[in-house]
Structure formats: structure tokens, C-alpha cells
## 1
Amino acid sequence: MTVVDIGSGSMKASVFVHDGGKVYQVASISHAYRLCPKIGDSISLRKKEIAAKFIGCVKDLALQNGSNLIIAVATQAARAMSNIDELQSVLQERHGVNLVTISGEEEAKLFALSVRRSTEFDKFISFDAGCGSVDIAEFNEKFLKAWSCPISSISLSKIGNLNQAKNIIDDTFNNVHFISDDLSGFKLVGSGGVLKIAVRLLGKCNRNIDYQSLNNLYNKLVDMSDDERVEFGVPMSRADIMPYGLLIILRLMKKIGIDNLILCVGNLRSGIAIRYFDKH
């Protein structure tokens, strides 16, 4: 099967197979682009064409890998736009692909499922810090609760004031109330483009990041221009939002009180594949 994720800051697709009770990714494709300039904007004709072209490439990838099922989902930018039906119509008419918009809570739950299967951790807080939202789940022997926080690194970058962004982030996270009284035994597991870039820039081959290292990287990037960030190794598509994305993760770590996090190899797409194969 093939799973497509039309996110706020990128489009990604993966082909999965089910073998021996486990789910494996055998091929993938991605394209960095922003569905809308700002969360809440409508999608333009140009962006619809880009998405349609990407889905055409996805169909080729699926065919090459013997996959005859494509599941396509869209996340926060799609949830916030008024004309998502236009994009859905284009993809259905040209490619026969049904694009479904899923809730942030569902995103969080699916990512938690992916974390559980890929790590077998018994107790963890998982988060996917995307360009459009931060989706959080609490897992303690079983899935407990999910939250979708409408914090957009894209929108925060438009404000252009880090102190104001910090206040917005903290105010939003104040609405997240974990069920477990003591989180000291929990792992913090995350995903998202900014976190993956941070791991690479820090040279963390083991995918573990401590708060101080992440904070040092944040302080370094804050003082750079977009061009300097690109020269430093940040992709052009993330240069303007990178400090804001890191700030979101740092404030979440403070909120939870955990000084180390783990970049998960799983993601929303693998969570969807796991759920599908569990049911079939």
C-alpha cells in the first residue's frame, strides 16, 4: 500500500509492505512546498497543480513497487483552508485519489501508534511538530489522550518577534493537561522536519538530543539571516521558520519537564499503514 501525507510544509509518500507481522517502508518520495503561504489561507491554482503533479509521481512510484492501494491524507493547512474541496476535486478527477482531511487528534494518535511499534516503549509522550500544528499524545501502557495544538511555525515566522512567539506557544501549551501525574519515567519522542534537520545539524547519529544542545543550536540560528542558515545547512524551504520550529520544541520540553528527546523513525504515514494492516 502507499500512503500520501499532504502536510503544511511538504508532501510525502511512502510505499509499505506487511511481512511477518511487521510493516516496512520500501520506497518513498517527497517534495518541500507550502500548501499555503500562511495557515488559514486558501490554496492557489499553482499549488493545486503542484500537488496534482506530485500525486502523478506517487502513482508511478506505487506502480513500480506493486502497490495498488493509495491512501491520501491532508493535515493542518488543509483543515484551516476554505477551499480544500477544490484540491480534493482536482486529485480525484485527474488521478482517482481521494484526499481525506484528518483531525490533529487523529494525527497524534496515529503517530503514537507508529512510535509504539517502532520503539516498543511502554510510557512515552509523542509529538509531531509540523509547520502547521503540534500534535501530542500520551501513552502509558496504552493510548491515553491526544491534543492538537494550533501552533504554526509558518504563522509565527510572519509575526517575526521571538518573544511574542514564545508567549503564544506557552499560552497554547498551557491547555495541554496530561493524565499521568508523574512523567519522570516517560520517554519524549518526536518527529517533524525541523527536528530532523536539527538532528542532522547536530551530528546526532543516535537520534537522541538533549535540551542544551538544541538550545545552543537555536541561539546560533537566531542570529543568522536566512541565507546564512542555508549556508549553515538548513534547507531553503525551512530557513525562515527554523528558529520558530526549534522554539516550539524547546518550550514543549520545558512544559513536560524532560531534558532529552528521541527522533522517531516512524511518522504519520507509517501509523496509517500499521492501522490498515492491523485491520486487514
## 2
Amino acid sequence: MTIEVRVPQLPESVADATLVTWHKRPGDTVARDENLVDLETDKVVLEVPAPAAGVLKDIKLSDGTTVTSGQLLALIEEAGAGTGVHPAPVMPAAAAPAALAPAAAATAAGAGAGAVAPAGGSSAAKLSPAAKRVAEENRVDPKALQGSGRDGRVSKSDVVNYLQAKESTPAASPAGSPAAPAAKAPAPSPDAGSRGVRGSRTEQRVPMTRLRARIAERMVQAQATQALLTSFNEVDLLGVNALRSRYKESFEKQYGVKLGYMSFFAKACVEALKKFPSVNASVEGSDIVYHEYFDLGVAVSTDRGLVVPVLRDVDQLNFAEIEKSIANFAARARTGAITIEELTGGTFTITNGGVFGSLLSTPIVNSPQSAILGMHKVQDRPVVIEGQVVVRPMMYVALTYDHRIIDGREAVQFLVTVKQCLEDPARMVLQV
């Protein structure tokens, strides 16, 4: 019996997807729920599992094709229908669902169920989607690649660097054949230094991933449609550091997660958003929509680009719940296991360039939101407190906002409120 493999129903917010990588070829044996192909949307990479065990009979669409919901991808000759193929045993308790699943989440479920790993072995499993695409286009063996990412994960830049190194390495002479005599190099002309070419000048042309293209589109759209302005302030984190040092061991022991800066900043932002509702609002046509809830987006950097998972109802979460949620989002976003629903919505965003060493920046608003807070590197600096010069752990903070609905006074006072909450963390407990 021939089984059709079709593009699953995409969410309403996603019009189409790009077929990134086939993990099987016609004639290959497939197990039920084994990942056949990766589909890349504007936000996440999705896997399409095999609906039945058998042999992949025909592939209808090639890599790089734009697909929509319900489109025919491939045909599978089901096991037992004259193929001589028997389905691989699968433990029902851990089997991955046949419905659409994010990348890595389905892979992890398949591994627990004894499903067949995607083609390419363990080395291929460590490639990011962008790295897979570049490697396959250039016919690079994944086993030859060395990953520079976390847990040896291979990024696109690792593949590009490998290709550049390979091109710059001279081919060896065949065994037993005499080496060709080296040609005498011509004497350099007096202006050779100005005209000569030194080192490799290779170029790699790689199409933008859908995520990168979407990020570019949204950033340009935000700057073209909003009146963006950035205000700055600085925060003395002595009080926050004292609390973290005092309670970090007991906090981690009790909740199983470290007490970081992000929970303090999230809580401080909620207090400031309560006082200045326009910072938590958005523009829809000629209307201003004031959100009476606090869904904070937290920017996470991944190999594929920046994603912003959303923490819902942060005003109702405690510090431990915020830290756990952020750690979970970050881990799953970097493996591609984040869901589209978790990336949708949000009324305000926090981004932390300080983890990369940024001292000061002007973040771009995540449209249709109207403001974003930028955190930066904590750095010991001399400051004047009560007439005395002292050294304190200082951080510059930046608020980029839509000046159409947020006045400069509100933006400045918002930052002052965040500063006050962080410099005196008791304010967040007492809500004063």
C-alpha cells in the first residue's frame, strides 16, 4: 500500500515553509515516526515524521522548495505490501507523535523510542539546520567537521571555515609520481605591494535562511513604521549582587536553578510597566491597545539567529519560576525544540547583549510591541555616592521606544523606576 507524506497543517501565523533537508533518499528503509525531512518556517524548524514503516518510494519536492499545508512531499511503500520490509519495533510509551513536531523535540522522542536516527550518524545530528544545508550543497562529509558550538554542535561558520581551509590547501601529488619543478617566481615590481593580492580571496554565497530573512524584514519594518528613540540610564547592581551572593546556594538547592540577573530585571520591568501602561501598549491602525497583562519576550541567540520566546503573566511568577522558564527556553531554542506558540505574542521585550560583552547598544523594538529594554555588561566603575568616589558594579540600560505613543518623560521615568527597583530590590517585594 502506498502512503502519502504531506506537509502538516501549519499554524495560522505561518503562510508557508521552506523544505530544508531530506534525511532519506528514494529506496531507503524508513521506520514509523522517523524524521524524513526538515521544514523551516519564519520562526522554527519543524520535522515531518514518516506516517508508516516501509520504503521511501518517491520524493516529489527537492531541497529549497517553498511548500504550503497539505502539499505532497513523498510516497512510502508501506511495509508488508510486497516490499519485504518489516517495521522496526517501537515502544508505544515513548513513541513520538505522528503529528508535526519541532526539530530536536521529535529527535529526542525518537531516540527514547528506539527510532532510527536521521541519516548521517551522530556527527550529522550535531549540525545546525543552516550548517546542514551548506554542507549538503557543497558535498561535505559531516564527519569531517569540527564543531565550535556548545556540546560540539557544528554551525554554518564551521562549515564555511572548513571549505575555505580546504580550498587554500594545495592538492598532494599522486604517490610515486615525481613532483613538478617549481616555477621561478617573477621579481616583484616596485608597486607590487599596492597591486598584489595576499592570502585567500574566496567567497561563499549562501541564501538567507527563512528565520534570518524574517528577522531582517521585521527589523526594517520596525524602523520604517515606528518613530524609534532610545533613552539610557545606568544601574548600580550592588544590592542585587549582595542578594545573589547571600542566597545563591540555598536558592539553587531549593529550586534547582541558578539565581541570575534576568529574574530581577523581569520583575523590575513589570513594576515599571504597571506605572507606565503606554510602554506596555501597541499601535493597531489608529488605535492604541493597552495590554493589562505582562507577557515579556526574552531574546535568545541561536545558531540560526535571534528568537524571542515569551514568558506569560510574569507578574504572577516568582523568581524561581522566571529563572526556570528562561533556562528552559534558552536550551530548547538552541536545539530547535521551541514551538511557534511560545514565540508568538509578547507585550514587551528584554534583550541582554551583556552576555556577549556589549557595554552599550540601541536595541530595535520587536514590532508590534512599542518598547524594548537592553541590558549590558556589568562593569566595575568609579561613581560618586554621597560625595565619595567608590567602585560599584554598574550596568548601562537602554530603552528603545515608539515615540508615537510613548513620550520622552514616560520613557525616562520608566528607566528610573527600573533603576530604583534594582538598586533597592526590597521595592519589588513591597511594590513601592
## 3
Amino acid sequence: MTHRWRATSIVGMILGISLLHYSCQLYLIHHTQLHNVFLKLFYIPIILSAFWWGLRGGSLAGTICAAIYFVDIFRWWNPSDPNHFNKVSEIILFIGVGILVGFLVDSDRLSKQEKNKAVERAETEFHHAITDSLTKAYNRRYLDQTLKNFWDMAQRGGATYSLLMFDLNNFKMINDKYGHPAGDRVLQSTVQTIFSNCRKTDLVFRYGGDEFILLLPMTQGNYALALANRLREEIAKLTFRGQAKTSFKADFSIGVIEYRPEFKNIQQMMNKLDGALYDAKKDVSRVALAS
């Protein structure tokens, strides 16, 4: 609709300027030179066409305006007129301005498109570099960087955060008994379940082969513990099929920890989280909060 409106506007401007130009020339030539003023108005639709449609639009509008003015020159052809060559040069200017402005607009748009494509490629490459290809969770390298950033913010007095560490129990048995493709589906479905039950600000990382870390910004330990129990219940609802079409379920243990100022460094916090995961494996609920 916008394209049609613009085309209609250009056609209307060219016709209107032509009418004003010829009207003044035919009826007011002995009293005024307004027809020459209206002639200059042809540059408006030429420049607008070049701005909207680039070289194609500018050259087309310039050619149309030049043709209209050529008819005017042909009707009043007088080689002895000292302004004769100026009129001819106006025709060339109509086309030249359309081509020049259109070329500049196309060049600018092409440059912006190439820049946008470069940015998109860089973003895609960065996303691939920080994402685990199997589960689409963030990878271990990005986890290390993110944990450092959150640690530094918390050390400077920022809001607390919590971590959940997931570990698939008997993952080797699942691979051996049901096949590696079935094991991959368990990992993929687990991550998708975590995604579906978390906030957009929460971050999921693949920590190891069958271990995942869920980072919860601005989250206290009690809330993180409640979320861990809910996630384990949701994961327990999943049913998988192995190579022999036999169905099975996956069982996860989850360790939970909240950032505390008394931690000396990130490694101490992660060690505490490992300890909570170890306690969760021994607990019936399979979920434990680090003390």
C-alpha cells in the first residue's frame, strides 16, 4: 500500500507541475516568468523517486520529466534564442540528478545491508561458539565467563543469585541399555523442560556430559529449592523409548546453592554445589540445598 501511495504521489506531482508550467507559459508569459519557477519544481519528484526507489526510480522520474520538458522545447524551438542551450542542459540535468541521487541512495542502502549482514553473521557465529550443539544450552566455556560476571556483580553489592546443578542418574546404563540416541533424547528433552519452566532471564548451561547448571539471577535459595523440586517433578513425567521400543524414564539429582558473601571465590561456591549434589543423590527427594 505504501508503494502504491508513493507512486501515485509522484505521478500526481509530475502532472501537477506540468500543468502549472504549461498554464503559466501559455497564458502569463507576457506578464511573468513563473513557468520557469515551476520548471524547477520537477526536481522534487525526481529526488523523491530516487530516495524511495534508488537508481531505478530516480532515472525513470528524471527521464519522464525530461521528456515532458523536451516537448516544451520542441514546441518553442528557436536556435537563435540565447537561452536555447540552457533549456537543453536542463533536460540533461533532470536525468543526471535522478541517476546521481539514485546511485547514492542505492550505494548507501547496499552499505547498510552489508553491515547488517556482517552483524548477523557475527551474532550467529558468537551464538554457535557459546552454545552446546546437542542440547542448545550454553556451553561450559560460556558458563565460566558468566559465573565470573555474576560473581563480580554480587561482590560489588549486587543482587544475589542461585545455582542448580542437575545430574542424570545412571546415564551410562541408559546409553548401554537403550542406545546413545535415546540418551541424547533424554538430555535434549531435559533441557527443553528446564527452558519451559524457567524465566527468560534464567540461563541453562551444559556443565558436563550429563550435568547441567541452571543460573537464577536475583533468586534466593528457598525459591531455587522450590524450583528444583518442581523441575524434577516435570522431568519425571517424561517417557522415552529405546532401540527396542521399550519405554523408560529418567531420574535426576539436583544440588542447589545461593551466593553468599562469605564464599572466598567461585571455586569454593562450586565445591559447595558439588557437595549439595552429592547429598541429593543420597536423599530420597533427590534434591538438596547447600548448607
